[in-house]
Amino acid sequence: MSQMSWDLSARGQLKEGADQKEKSNPKKESPTRKSASDRKVLTVSDLNSQIKGQLESNFPRFWLKGELSNFTAHGSGHWYFSLKDNKSQISGVMFRGSNNRVKFKPKTGQEVIVFGRISVYEPRGNYQVYVEHMEPVGAGALQQAFEDLKRKLREEGLFDPKRKKPLPEHPKHIAIVTSPTGAAIRDMLNVLRRRYRSAVVTIIPTVVQGEAAAPHIVKALRAVDTLKNVDVVIVGRGGGSMEDLWCFNDERVARAIVDCKHPVISAVGHEIDFTISDFVADLRAPTPSAAAELVAANSEELLQKLKGLFKYLVQSMDRRLGEKKLELHQVSHRLVDPRRTLQDFIQRNDELFMRMQRVMHSQLRERKIKLEGLYRSMEHPRRQLMRAREQLTSIFQRLQGKVMERLSQQRQRLGQQSALLDSLSPLRVLDRGYALVQKQDEVVKSVKQIKAGDELKVRLAQGQLDVEVKSLKE
Fold first, then answer.
1. How far apart are CA 105 and CA 141, in angstroms?
2. End-to-end CA distance of the chain
3. CA–CA separation, 378 vs 250, rounded Å?
4. Radius of gyration from C-alpha coordinates of the chain
5. pTM value?
6. What CATH number was assigned to the domain covering residues 2-23+42-138?
7. pLDDT tens-place string over residues 149-191
8. Angle CA(170)–CA(172)–CA(178) in degrees, nearest 5?
């Protein structure tokens, strides 16, 4: 900004020097008196281009403070606005490639600090600031970006406890997403080694600081979903500044935690540090060590619990066995001697077998008597065959007589129909001396159908005449 002030004052000195030069040379020729060939005439485009070149060469990139006015986020992704103070204003533009890195949502009336360059938009001749970086005045840009993202994700319901998955009581397989060289992983492994030796621990290494950290963490969380039998995931790192922990305030990391198939514990920084990951995770641990303690069951506590369960199991078995012994004793008094029951069954079986033999003998006698009666009443097959042949011969003779009779009737009827058809034939009429006159295959019935000069066909009983009409007479 000091450079801008210096340039403006330098321009004033140049102008002042020019005025003094004009005063010292009052007899200089007026430009209007030059001939048309000596004038150097600029186009509007030339003028704007030269102004643009002067501005860009004399004004390097600078920091500028002002209040946003007429802020518009265009559908193309570019931002258009004005920056003003209590005395003046200047137009500004921030293209999509630059505003993607802005960590808060600007709005009209907000005071900001921008970094950029000044140039001329030649089509309109307007000079404006081309902004490359923007941050709010007052609360830091990171803090405001944090609050904006926090508000956005809360409105989407990603902080809702109903959405979060419960942690298993005794996880067998624990996945840890963190830096493999930091103090956090050493602390967590020490806790797990001391309290939960039986757990399987899989470390998914990732970068946890810097601009490249967020996509690495997202990739690591997606890799966890490809592992088998994972019960819980710990994602985090040790303490640091807000900038150091900023990757855990990235929206991509937050959504990757939400999309993870397994329960996720966020363990970022110290107890006083809060990140977006803490709010979207299924559980927040104040430190990485605390996260390890939350998932690790104390081996001594687990052993005592197992002993208590074993004692309860033995007592339950003793009580159950006593109840069954008493029940068996009561049942044994009501139980009949099985040998006596078996004797009753044997006797009953003998009685049923004897009854079955009597019934079978009786039915066999009845069937034998019936069969003998049928045999006596049955005729010899040869006699039946001879009678059937006689019946077949009689039927054939009657059928043959009927067929001959029917054939004679049909022949007589055919002769009558043929005679009738022959009597109605036009050829019979011709045999009596009549003729059939045709004009182009059409029968002529009246002289009105023909005229002199027409050619006609006259069909006789024997042969055909081609004639020409000489005259007509009705």
1. 10
2. 130
3. 108
4. 60
5. 0.43
6. 2.40.50.140
7. 999 999 999 999 999 999 988 888 999 999 999 899 999 999 9
8. 105
